[in-house]
Amino acid sequence: MLDIRFIRENAAAVKAAMTHRNAEVDVDALLELDSRRRARVSEAEVLKAERNKTSKSIGQMIKAGGNPEAVKAQVREMGDKITAMDDELRDLDAQLREALCYMPNLPSATTPIGKDERANPVLRSWGEKKTLDFEPVAHWDLGQSLNLFDLERGAKIAGSGFPLFIGKGAKLERALIQFMLDLHTEEHGYIEVAPPFMCNAAAMTGTGQLPKFAEDMYTVPLDGLYAIPTAEVPVTNMYGNEILDQELPILHTAYTPCFRREAGSAGKDTRGLLRVHQFDKVEMVKFTTPETSEEEHEKLTLDAERVLQKLGLHYRVIELCTGDLGFSAAKCYDIELWAPAQDKWLEVSSCSNFKDYQARRANIRYRDEDGKLAFVHTINGSGVALPRLVIAILENNQNADGSIALPEALWPYMGGLQTLN
């Protein structure tokens, strides 16, 4: 979340940032709530000081032989008022925190200003579009003909959007996960973790999924748990309410399944693996100092790109403008793969710098060079998500006979298998 003091001292700039984000945030109402809270704090402090002073006079009165009952009654009355004030303050604190939790992060000073995705600049690309001398076949037909996945049986088990991989398709999923984990741990310096696939409300709030995006979550109401939408949630919250005594940056990578209801996206890209409710993903998470977060963000993006380079897939990197920026991000790069049968780009990774936004929500701090407590900066990105990666592998590497030439980097992970047929 944002620092209320910063909002108070930079109200005009914050309002402009919210406008650039297309965010409907009533900054004036937030500041009025903050003003009421601070006024109540001052009133309570004055009354507590007066009560303490009056309480001390009781002993002096008794020593002097006076009757302190009237003063005692006055102290009790003050105590009742203080209790009421404290209750009101707790309520105001809760209201202020909730309002801040619904407020998105401020865009970075270098984030391009724009209304929507049409204003996202393309920063770079790698490789070239595959030229096929036949009409490319869509991944859903390739997967069915090669018996890689069975979407109908997956839907029978759990509903649409829950794919069922079988045979060599299941092995391909496992191979890609292992390949990416090995790359990030052995070449990029990340420490692997295997986190829970469920998180509580505090963890979901810490990374910004709650309360804003509650409708997108799969829940276990009786236990107060949520199925994770990304490994970002449990991995970031590993250090919630802690003061880190490790040298920064801390780099973690994790494989998890991800669960998203995708509320509001009904009818959009629902065929095949384009948009699903459960999918596998390898995530990268960094905890850095404010001074190094921009550099570490660039490095993390390159780490995600390296996955695609080793798989020989054509991709491009775009920077999200203010109007297309994710709720918690200050700066974000999307990496998109080309899918020839879809004739379009498919996002396979979002690499975001949250600055101290998540750390404030989750209370993750460190000591700076002067020994003062400060909030860390958090960065994360997919390294990468599998559904659209599988789409790109199948559609770009298909042969005229319907077989798929696997990328060489996967051969060892597929037991030497070079072709799916």
- Assembly of the depicted chains: single chain
Q: Report the portion of residues in β strands.
A: 15-25%
Give me the secondary-structure category. Answer: alpha+beta
Q: Rounded to an integer, what's the Rg over CA atoms? A: 27 Å
Low-pLDDT windows of residues? none
For the biggest β-sheet, the strand order reads 1-9-10-11-14-8-7-2
CATH fourth-tier homologous superfamily of the largest domain: Bira Bifunctional Protein, Domain 2
What can be said about this structure in brief?
By secondary structure, the protein is α+β, with helices and mostly antiparallel strands.
How are the secondary structure elements laid out?
Elements: H1 4-9, H2 11-20, H3 27-63, H4 69-101, E1 122-126, H5 139-145, H6 151-158, H7 167-186, E2 191-192, E3 198-200, H8 201-206, E4 218-220, E5 225-227, H9 232-236, E6 242-244, E7 250-259, E8 278-288, H10 293-310, E9 315-319, E10 331-339, E11 344-355, H11 357-362, E12 364-367, E13 373-375, E14 377-385, H12 386-396, E15 404-405, E16 419-420
Parallel strand pairs: 2-7, 6-12
Antiparallel strand pairs: 1-9, 3-5, 4-5, 7-8, 8-14, 9-10, 10-11, 11-14, 12-13, 15-16
